[in-house]
Amino acid sequence: MIVLYILCVFFAISAFFPATGNPHWFFRTADFVRLQSIFIEITLLGLLVFFGWEFSTFEWILAGSLLFSSMYQLLKVYKYSSYHPRRIPDFPSDGCVSILAANVLQDNTNFDAFLSECNTYNPDLILTMESNSEWEKGLSSLEETHPFSVKIPLENYYGMHLYSKKELHNVSIQFQVEEEVPSIFFDYTLDNGTSLFFVCLHPAPPSPTENETSKERDAELMLTGKIIREQDKPTVVCGDMNDVVWSRVTRLFKKMTGMIDPRVGRGFFPTYHAGYRFMRFPLDHLFHTKDLFVKTMKRTTNFGSDHFGMYYEIHLKKKYNPHSTQS
């Protein structure tokens, strides 16, 4: 029973670690595992009742703490579940662009499986993260259908490649916070002449093997948010953010930019880890400004990476009146 008591105390308390504001990975991890933590807390509550419930004051406090903690976490994640009322995006469309974004895992060599996903969805834009020189070679056939590209082959698990059917404008590769962690900025022109501003991100996560704290990742999101606030055109942010959508920093990012998360009411769409069903978190995201809407949003099948890819169809609301056309 002592082990059970210790587990009950730890899980009842750990749910509130992120609220301390401490950027160390140990305190931020609780944000990632909220779905799993809710399940564990309910299981611990059941075990507490099953194994010798004595109606002691201490056990009542433990049970109450587990219930309070699980409800607190449920409130954090509920709006991203499929049970939350969904705002159906049924606006008239004045143009569309589709994107397939995936962390392909640098060590994964199953190029054909990913190319099969590309053929299945046939997106206008293909974004890969963790793609190095070997992945660049493995995806060379994409240039037949997507002749316009941005290539950043790196061997540090932060390489990025972008392939497009149409010409990209004002392309900029920036290393916003860390010297070897790039971001891609570009304009994409719809058929009606409206220019969309895209930002592709893959900041480093807080972890024992990466950055000890989340300061670098948080800083990149905040810097990106400031850039977006200066834009006067429809904007999309996409990539492996290495953060969950209910975290304080991601919620602050959405608040400061006014961007919309199309995941709300559709489901969690957990993308990592593709190999372990119970340990999956929604780390790959897309956010967009209010003049856009996502009509289709799908998760790919497993193509050998530790992440699933995400496919989106992004539409421009017909009522939007662009200030400028193609650059």
Explain how this protein is built.
The protein is of the alpha+beta class. The chain has 2 domains: 2-80; 93-317, Deoxyribonuclease I, Chain A, CATH 3.60.10.10. It is 31% helix and 22% strand. It is built from 8 helices and 11 strands. Strands 3-4-2-1-11-10 form a 6-stranded mixed sheet, with no helix packed on it. Helix 5 links the parallel strand 1 (93-103) and strand 2 (125-129). Helix 1 (2-14) packs antiparallel against helix 3 (34-50), helix 1 packs parallel to helix 4 and helix 3 (34-50) packs antiparallel against helix 4 (57-77). It starts with a helix and ends in a 10-residue tail after the last strand. The mean pLDDT is 91.
At a glance:
By secondary structure, the protein is of the alpha+beta class. The chain has helices at 2-14, 25-32, 34-50, 57-77, 111-121, 133-138, 215-229, 248-257; strands spanning 93-103, 125-129, 148-152, 160-164, 169-174, 183-189, 195-201, 235-240, 284-288, 292-299, 310-317.
Instruction: Report the radius of gyration as a whole number of Å.
Output: 21 Å
SSE string: HHHHEHEHEEEEEHEHEEE
| Overall outline | globular
What's the helix count? 8
Going by helix content, strand content and strand pairing, the class is alpha+beta
The largest sheet is: 6 strands, mixed
End-to-end span in angstroms? 68 Å
In the predicted model, the low-confidence regions spanning at least 5 consecutive residues are none
Fraction of helical residues = 25-40%
The residue-averaged pLDDT reads 91
CATH class value of the largest domain: Alpha Beta
Q: State the domain count.
A: 2
CATH-defined superfamily of the largest domain: Endonuclease/exonuclease/phosphatase
Instruction: Determine the CATH topology of the largest domain.
Output: Deoxyribonuclease I, Chain A
- Spatial sequence of strands, sheet with the most strands: 3-4-2-1-11-10
Number of beta strands: 11
User: Which percent band covers the strand fraction?
Assistant: 15-25%
